[in-house]
Amino acid sequence: NSSQTTAADNKKASGAKPQEQEEEVDIDLEAPETEKAALAIQNQFRRFQKKKK
């Protein structure tokens, strides 16, 4: 049927970036190392935000 378009045609027409596939990540959110890493990332982000102003 010529009235139907494929996903590839839609991407070309809209100029949109290809959709990223969500990959399953196996991270233990209760692990102490994960908490420490999250806090470190948050602190760096806050510093970045303060610097940006």
List the helices and strands and how they pair.
Blueprint: H1 7-14, H2 32-52
Describe this structure in words.
- This protein is an all-alpha fold and 53 residues long.
- 55% of the residues lie in helices and 0% in strands.
- The termini are far apart.
- The mean pLDDT is 78.
- Belongs to the PCP4 family.
- This is Si:dkey-46i9.1.
- InterPro entries: Calmodulin_Regulator_PCP4-like (IPR052142).
Individual helix count:
2
Give me the Rg, rounded.
Answer: 21 Å
The profile of the biggest β sheet is:
none
Beta strands, count: 0
Family: Belongs to the PCP4 family.
Protein name: Si:dkey-46i9.1
Provide a quick synopsis of the model:
By secondary structure, the chain is mainly α. The chain has helices at residues 7-14, 32-52. The relative contact order is 0.07.
